Each structure stands twice: as structure tokens, then as C-alpha cells.
């Protein structure tokens, strides 16, 4: 490999403009891909297979509207006056206008939602009042019905008596009339017979008088019959009226009996309604003082699937609402952005790195060369990541990690090669030969170090966590580009700059050396060079100092909580922070991170069954400690799923909210027993808990893999058993101390004003894993540049004790410079805009600082000093099996030295 890199360096030097042009072309293609394809980054982190994600997946199938993502929009009257009717109308219109944006499925008008809730409260109060009066009203109704039946019975008796009288009168009239009719017939016949017989006129007149009396009697009876018929009609009408009244009373009795029978069910339903309203009492869409309104925008897909373009369109649309005195702010779910990959902090970090390089190298040209190489590599890897994000699901943090790593290692790797090149030039070596040899020797170390970091990052895929594996893969790609740039672009630049990488004084000394004027080394300088390093001179004290410092720094790790930052962690001037604070002040901090509880049933619920289940579940959820409100939503279309929004007392990142999620999940058995439904919990807090748990579970495997790889690689490189053990133990201490420092600053709030930590919270759940992966690779770099010098000196016959000082002196300058550069670069990201990036940059900066200065320059040399010759012990059988890895290119140096001897001869 050293020979190949030697030839690669020579080629890059001879074809400098071709190599530079090729890199410019690659950069142009990467920029074109990024601009053409466009970066599409996810603003949330999901993990398939977790309980919370499984609930979302289930809801997507059974209850699509319940799986919709949403973002909160806060409207606040900054002038202290309530919203006017015109302001409410303008806000409603602005929210409604967002429904025209692609993937926006609906909105919640806060004023309408609050009015509906208030109306339901009034309706429930009315229902309660009516139900309270129902027994008295029913008793009064029954009394009226009973009185009606009594009146009917009295009327029936009266009509019956009248009917009897009428019937008797009819009978009497009929009998009398029948007699009179008979008399009429007889008299008529008698008169006719008397006339025929010639009876006297007086006799006939008497008979005719009698006939007239009979006929008058008949007429009188007919009049009586008419009166009796009229009386009968009245009785018949009275009977019909009684029949109608009976039917009315019967119907009223049935209705009253039904109402009386329904009263327990109505009481039960009212009780369920009271329970639901009681659970939702503390939930409001408009604050009680009327100054803050909480709207929402609903998307047609889960939040993790909503594109940044859609969210930006929503924010832009609502930001256009210009109402005097009305402040519009957006929650973190909506106002998420990648931010600038390189901001003021990062530029300051680059400036510090450049100053370190200038101090170390003594010339602006030499100092600018590693920075230019790193920027080129970062440009290629970052633009490529942007382009790939359109076809690969990628979190918004991923490219920033790539930029962070690319800048840091890009500068360091180029510096390692440039430093070797400068040392060789100072000895009088020609520019072309020095470039090739530096690439073959230090380039070999750079390649090994880069591969080590890449393996550690790619091993993140072993965790089985998709977004973390993607972060590792993109980071590894950034390292790969940085390595290739260091091995090709750096030699090309060194060829173009020639001897200008040396200062004027260094060039004069080189000329003197080539002319044979070799300056004598003074005894004072020689004594200084031979002086034993402090770690080897005072090993026990060095171990004690470094160990105590590491333990103290790592102590906060014992209280580390994992999670994801919420809106309270955003910069104070950001809309996300304003939205979080206004929501907390107006509605309580828990409204910023509501928990979704979904209960699914095997069989469809009836209307009453759904109401009862909602009430029972909401009541049980309200019994969970630190739950502020529970709002029951509508049932699914098939009536098999019920969804509840649980508002915790504190924010989504708080410890109490985490406990709320766990306590809700613990009620699953009770809810199944109570209702027969199966409970699932999701939402931002639940997702964070599940992801943190999965990451914590995968961490031991990953750490074990990294430590095992560390020991194996160092056994291969250093051909020792104790050296790898010491180095790996030091790496572990560095990681623990770095995580302890992160906990102290970002969770405890120590030095919070310096690092912008105004609301301490849990540590990013994937940070420990990322720290392990990145610090492992960087620790191996420092170990390589320190320990190879020690091993080489020991192999060349120096004592184990003397070799320590020789190796440390040979490598510490470049290690210190590289560490300061990395601390500057990583530390600059500790002041980044993103709350996700800040702890990552801080942790890496502290980790590098600790590993380089406490572990590699103190702890490791001191431990080697105590072990003496045992530090380089390796079983013979293992020595025979292991291949000889020439990381520093020593064989190449010897071969080049032999060639020079042959040429001279």
C-alpha cells in the first residue's frame, strides 16, 4: 500500500493541474446534483418496530385521519387586548387558505374549536338541569294523566247515565207512538165506517176530534224523538271525545313510561358525557385570558413523511398574516430547517484552525493548504449528500455531521502529509521526491486512520437503527472523500506551491544544509531534546492526575437522560422557542407535546358502547399522575378504534412526561379488562422514549464491537497485547468523560450561558452512539501518531523507557496541532443554530481535547512506563500469524534510502 500511495503522490505532483481540474469537475458535478435533485431531509426521527411507530402504522391502516401529522400555530395578542371579530376572521381565513397547499389535509380554527367546546359545556349544563328536574316533571305528568283518567271515568259514568235515560225515553216514545198510530188507524177506519153508515154528524165530529188529538200526540212524540236523537248525538260525540282522550292519555302514559324506563340510560349517558367533559376541562384552544390562540395544521401523512417544502409553504403562508398587535409563531413540528451548514461559529472555527496551522507551519501558504483541501472535500461530500437525499431517506442532522467530520479530519489528514513533506524538505530532499515519500509514509497512516474512522462509522449500521446507520454511512463517505483529497489534492497543491510551504528562514537553513553548512547542535538544545517527558518521568502522578480528571468529568454521566430536544432547546430568538413559551404560558407546557393513546377493538362499537368506552378510558387516563387533560376524538369509520389526546403537565422532554407515557402503557391491562380494547401509545414523547430505549439497547453491542475492533487493529499495528488494552481503556475513559461533560452542560445547565443552554433537558438519544463511533476513529489517529514513534524507537534498540520520550516528542507537535484544530472545528458547531448539532459538536470537541491531552499524551505514556518491556509483549504464535502492517511506511523509507545509497555509489 505504501508503494501504491508513493506512486499516487508522485502522479498527483506531476499532473497537478489535471488532479486539481478533476477535483473541480467532481465538485461541480456534486453541486449540480444537489441543485438539480434538491435536498429533501426529514425533520423527525422514526424507528420501525418500536411500539409508538407500530401504533402510527396501525392507525394509517385502520384510522388514517388519526395518523395525520400536525403542527401547531400560535397566535398571540402582544398588545394585551383580546382578539377582535375581524382578527378572528382574518386568522380563520389564513388557516383555511393553507388547505390549498399540497399534503395539507385540514386545519383547526382555535376560535371555532373553543366555541364548540364552550357550547358543549352549556349543553351539558342544560342536560344536567333537565335530568335533575326529570323525576319531578315525570311525577307531575303522571298526576295529570291520572287526573285525566279520573275525568274520563266520571264523564263515562255521566254519559252512561244519559244513555240509559235516552234509551228509556226512546223506548217510551216508541211504545206511545205505536199505540197512537194504532189508535189513528182505528179512528180513521171508524170515521170511514161512520160516514158510510150514515152516522150522525155529531158522532162523526167526535171521532174526527179524537183523530186530531191522536195525530197531535204523534206529532208531539216525533218532536220528543228528535230531542232524544239530539241527546244521543251528544252522547255519541262525548264517547268519541272520550275515546280520543283515552288514546291521548294512553300515548302520554307510554311516553312517560318510556321516559321513566330511559331515565337510567340517560343518566348513564350524561354521566359519560360529564366524565369526558371533566377530562377535557383543562384543554383549551384559546387561553383563559383570551390573549393566545392555538391553531393547528393537519397533513395527509404522518409528520415523518411530510416534506420540508410543505412545512415551509405552510409557514410562509401564515407568516403573511400581517395583523397589528398579533404575533404568529410556529411549533418545532412546522418550523424545522436544516439551517446553514457553515455559519458564523463554523467560520470562527476555521479561522482558529488556520491560526493554529499558521503558528505551527510558519507560512500562510502552508497554513491555507490543509484548509483548502478540507473545504474541497466537504464541498464534494456535502453536495453529494444533498443530492442523494432526494432518493434516500435522510435526517436533516446527517449532512451536518458529514460537514463536521469532513472539516476536522480533512484538515488533520492533509496536515499529517504536509508536515511530513515539510520535515523532509528541511533535510534537503527534493520537492517531487518529498511529495511522493510523504504520501507513501504519512499517507499510509492517513489511509489507515481514515479506514479506522470509516469502519467505526459504518458499524453504526449494526445497531439496526436506520437513521443512525445513514448518519454513519454519510459520515464515512465524508471521511472517504477527505482521505482521497488528502492523498491526491494535497500532493498536487504541494507541487504547485513548491518550497513556499517553508518559511524564508526554513528555506535559508535548507540551502545552507544543501551547501554543506550543517549547524552544530548546542549542548543546551541537545539536553532539551533528550529530556524525559513528564508522563514517563512521573508515571504514577500522571496516571493519578489524568484518571482523577477523567473520573470527575465523567461523574455527571450517572444521571444522563436520553431523549430529543423540544422547542425549549431552540435559540431564544427562534419562532420555535417563542411558540413553545407562549403555549406554555397560555395552556401549560404539556400542550407542546401531547401524547396520543389509541384503543382498538375486535368488534365494532355501538354508539352507546363507544361513548361508554370513551368515558371509561378518559377517566382512567386522567387517573395517571401528571396528566392535565384527556380529549377524546371521534371513532374510526368502522367504529373499531378510539383515539385520545393526552396532555401531560410538563413539556415533552421532561422526566414527568416520560413517566406519563410509561404509566399510560402500564394501564393497558386495566383498559382491556374494562373495555375489551387494546391500548397503544404514540406521539413525540412516546417515539423519543422508544427510540432512546432501542438506542440504549444497541449501545453495548456497538461499544463492544468498537472496542473489539480497536484492540484487534492495534494488535495488528503495534504487535502488542498491553498497548491495545491500554489504548482502548483510554478511549473508553475519553468517551465516558465526553458524555459526562455533555450531561453537565446540556442537561444540568452548567456553563449554559456560554453554550446557549437556556432550558436544560435530556441528551440527544443517539449522541452516545455517535460519540463512540467518531471518537474511536480519532483516538486511533492520535494513538497511531504517538505510539508508532514509541514502538519504532523501541524496535531500533532504545529502552522501553527512553522510547516513550522519543515517540512522544516525535508525534506530540502534530497531535497537539491536530487536536486543537479538531477542537476548534467541532467546538464551533457547539454554537450552531440547531439544538441537535450543538451537543454533538460540544461532545466531540471535549472528547478530542480529553483524548489527545489527557489520554494519549499522559495516561498512555505513563502506563507504558510502568509496564516497561512488558508493554510490547506478544505471544510468538500470534506474532507469526499476524501480517506485518507497515502503517508508517518504514519499509518504503528503507527502500528509498537504499536506492539513494545505490545511486550515490
Task: Give the arrangement of secondary structure elements.
Elements: H1 2-14, H2 16-37, H3 51-62, E1 70-77, H4 85-97, E2 104-108, H5 110-197, H6 201-279, E3 292-299, H7 308-319, E4 326-330, H8 344-361, H9 364-388, H10 397-426, H11 431-458, H12 466-497, H13 504-514, H14 523-530, H15 534-537, H16 539-554, E5 562-563, H17 575-587, E6 595-600, H18 607-622, E7 627-632, E8 641-648, H19 655-666, H20 668-675, E9 678-682, H21 684-718, H22 722-747, H23 752-755, E10 763-764, H24 767-795, H25 800-829, H26 837-867, H27 876-881, H28 890-904
Parallel strand pairs: 5-10
Antiparallel strand pairs: 1-3, 1-4, 2-3, 6-8, 6-9, 7-8
Helix pairs in contact: 1-11, 1-12, 2-9, 2-12, 5-6, 6-18, 8-9, 8-10, 8-25, 9-10, 9-12, 10-11, 10-12, 10-25, 11-12, 11-24, 16-22, 16-26, 21-22, 21-24, 22-24, 22-26, 24-25, 24-26, 25-26
Amino acid at each position: 500500500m505504501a508503494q501504491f500511495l508513493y506512486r499516487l503522490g508522485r502522479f498527483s505532483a506531476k499532473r497537478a493541474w489535471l488532479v486539481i481540474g478533476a477535483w473541480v469537475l467532481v465538485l461541480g458535478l456534486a453541486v449540480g446534483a444537489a441543485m438539480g435533485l434538491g435536498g429533501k431531509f426529514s425533520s423527525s426521527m422514526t424507528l420501525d418496530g418500536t411500539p409508538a411507530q407500530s401504533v402510527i402504522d396501525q392507525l394509517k391502516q385502520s384510522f388514517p385521519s388519526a395518523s395525520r401529522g400536525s403542527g401547531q400555530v400560535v397566535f398571540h395578542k402582544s398588545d394585551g387586548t383580546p382578539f377582535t371579530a375581524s382578527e378572528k376572521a382574518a386568522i380563520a381565513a389564513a388557516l383555511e387558505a393553507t388547505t390549498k397547499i399540497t399534503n395539507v389535509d385540514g386545519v383547526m380554527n382555535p376560535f371555532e374549536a373553543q366555541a364548540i367546546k364552550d357550547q358543549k359545556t352549556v349543553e351539558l349544563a342544560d342536560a344536567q338541569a333537565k335530568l335533575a328536574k326529570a323525576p319531578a316533571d315525570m311525577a307531575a305528568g303522571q298526576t295529570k294523566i291520572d287526573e285525566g283518567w279520573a275525568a274520563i271515568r266520571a264523564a263515562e259514568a255521566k254519559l252512561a247515565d244519559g244513555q240509559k235515560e235516552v234509551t228509556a225515553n226512546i223506548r217510551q216514545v216508541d211504545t206511545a207512538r205505536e199505540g197512537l198510530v194504532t189508535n189513528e188507524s182505528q179512528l180513521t177506519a171508524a170515521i170511514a165506517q161512520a160516514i158510510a153508515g150514515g152516522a150522525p154528524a155529531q158522532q162523526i165530529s167526535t171521532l174526527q176530534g179524537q183523530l186530531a188529538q191522536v195525530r197531535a200526540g204523534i206529532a208531539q212524540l216525533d218532536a220528543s224523538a228528535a230531542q232524544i236523537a239530539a241527546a244521543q248525538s251528544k252522547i255519541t260525540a262525548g264517547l268519541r271525545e272520550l275515546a280520543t282522550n283515552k288514546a291521548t292519555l294512553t300515548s302520554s302514559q307510554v311516553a312517560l313510561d318510556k321516559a321513566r324506563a330511559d331515565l337510567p340510560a340517560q343518566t348513564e349517558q350524561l354521566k359519560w358525557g360529564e366524565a369526558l367533559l371533566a377530562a377535557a376541562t383543562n384543554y383549551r384552544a384559546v387561553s383563559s385570558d383570551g390573549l393566545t390562540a392555538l391553531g393547528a395544521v393537519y397533513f395527509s401523512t404522518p409528520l415523518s413523511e411530510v416534506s420540508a417544502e410543505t412545512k415551509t409553504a405552510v409557514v410562509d403562508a401564515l407568516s403573511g398574516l400581517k395583523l397589528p398587535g398579533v404575533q404568529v409563531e410556529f411549533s418545532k413540528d412546522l418550523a424545522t430547517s436544516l439551517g446553514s451548514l457553515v455559519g458564523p461559529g463554523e467560520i470562527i472555527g476555521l479561522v482558529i484552525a488556520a491560526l493554529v496551522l499558521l503558528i505551527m507551519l510558519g507560512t500562510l501558504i502552508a497554513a491555507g493548504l490543509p484548509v483548502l483541501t478540507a473545504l474541497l472535500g466537504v464541498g464534494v461530500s456535502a453536495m453529494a449528500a444533498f443530492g442523494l437525499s432526494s432518493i434516500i431517506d435522510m435526517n436533516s442532522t446527517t449532512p451536518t455531521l458529514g460537514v463536521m467530520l469532513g472539516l476536522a479530519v480533512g484538515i488533520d489528514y492533509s496536515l499529517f502529509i504536509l508536515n511530513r513533506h515539510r520535515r523532509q524538505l528541511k533535510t534537503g530532499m527534493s520537492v517531487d521526491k518529498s511529495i511522493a515519500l510523504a504520501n507513501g509514509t504519512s499517507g499510509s497512516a492517513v489511509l489507515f486512520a481514515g479506514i479506522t474512522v470509516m469502519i467505526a462509522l459504518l458499524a453504526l449500521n449494526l445497531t439496526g437503527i436506520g437513521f443512525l446507520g445513514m448518519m454513519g454511512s454519510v459520515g464515512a463517505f465524508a471521511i472517504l472523500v477527505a482521505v482521497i483529497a488528502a492523498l491526491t489534492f494535497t500532493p498536487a497543491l504541494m507541487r504547485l506551491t513548491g518550497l513556499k510551504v517553508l518559511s524564508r528562514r526554513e528555506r535559508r537553513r535548507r540551502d545552507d544544509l544543501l551547501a554543506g553548512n550543517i549547524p552544530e547542535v548546542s549542548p543546551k538544545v541537545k539536553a532539551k531534546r533528550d529530556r524525559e517527558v513528564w508522563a514517563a518521568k512521573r508515571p504514577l502522578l500522571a496516571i493519578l492526575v489524568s484518571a482523577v480528571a477523567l473520573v470527575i468529568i465523567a461523574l455527571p454521566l450517572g444521571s444522563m437522560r436520553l431523549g430529543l430536544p423540544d422547542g425549549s432547546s431552540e435559540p431564544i430568538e427562534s419562532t420555535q422557542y417563542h411558540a413553545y413559551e407562549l403555549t406554555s404560558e397560555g395552556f401549560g407546557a404539556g400542550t407542546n407535546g401531547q401524547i396520543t393513546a389509541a384503543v382498538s377493538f375486535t368488534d365494532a362499537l355501538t354508539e352507546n358502547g363507544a361513548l361508554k368506552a370513551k368515558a371509561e378510558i378518559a377517566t382512567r387516563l386522567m387517573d395517571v399522575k401528571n396528566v392535565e387533560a384527556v380529549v377524546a376524538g371521534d371513532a374510526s369509520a368502522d367504529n373499531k378504534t378510539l383515539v385520545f389526546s393526552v396532555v401531560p403537565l410538563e413539556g415533552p422532554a421532561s422526566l414527568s412526561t416520560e413517566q406519563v407515557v410509561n404509566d399510560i402503557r402500564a394501564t393497558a391491562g386495566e383498559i382491556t379488562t374494562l373495555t375489551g380494547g387494546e391500548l397503544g401509545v404514540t406521539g413525540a414523547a412516546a417515539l423519543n422514549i422508544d427510540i432512546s430505549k432501542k438506542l440504549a439497547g444497541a449501545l453495548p453491542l456497538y461499544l463492544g464491537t468498537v472496542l473489539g475492533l480497536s484492540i484487534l487493529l492495534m494488535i495488528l499495528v503495534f504487535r502488542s497485547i498491553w498497548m491495545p488494552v491500554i489504548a482502548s481503556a483510554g478511549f473508553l475513559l475519553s468517551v465516558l468523560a465526553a458524555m459526562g461533560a455533555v450531561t453537565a452542560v446540556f442537561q444540568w445547565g452548567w456553563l449554559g450561558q456560554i453554550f446557549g443552554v437556556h432550558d436544560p433537558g435530556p441528551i440527544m438519544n443517539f449522541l452516545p452512539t455517535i460519540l463512540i463511533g467518531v471518537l474511536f476513529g480519532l483516538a486511533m489517529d492520535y494513538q497511531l501518531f504517538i505510539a508508532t514513534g514509541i514502538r519504532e524507537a523501541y524496535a531500533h534498540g532504545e529502552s522501553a523507557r527512553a522510547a516513550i520520550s522519543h515517540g512522544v516528542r516525535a508525534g506530540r507537535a502534530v497531535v497537539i496541532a491536530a487536536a486543537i484544530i479538531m477542537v476548534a472545528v467541532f467546538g464551533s458547531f457547539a454554537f450552531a443554530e440547531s439544538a441537535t448539532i450543538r451537543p454533538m459538536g460540544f461532545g466531540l470537541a471535549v472528547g478530542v481535547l480529553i483524548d489527545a491531552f489527557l489520554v494519549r499524551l499522559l495516561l498512555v505514556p505513563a502506563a507504558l512506563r510502568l509496564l516497561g518491556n512488558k508493554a510490547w509483549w506478544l505471544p510468538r504464535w500470534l506474532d507469526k500469524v499476524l501480517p506485518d502492517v507497515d502503517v508508517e511506511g518504514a519499509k518504503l523509507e528503507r527502500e528509498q534510502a537504499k536506492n539513494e545509497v545505490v545511486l550515490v555509489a
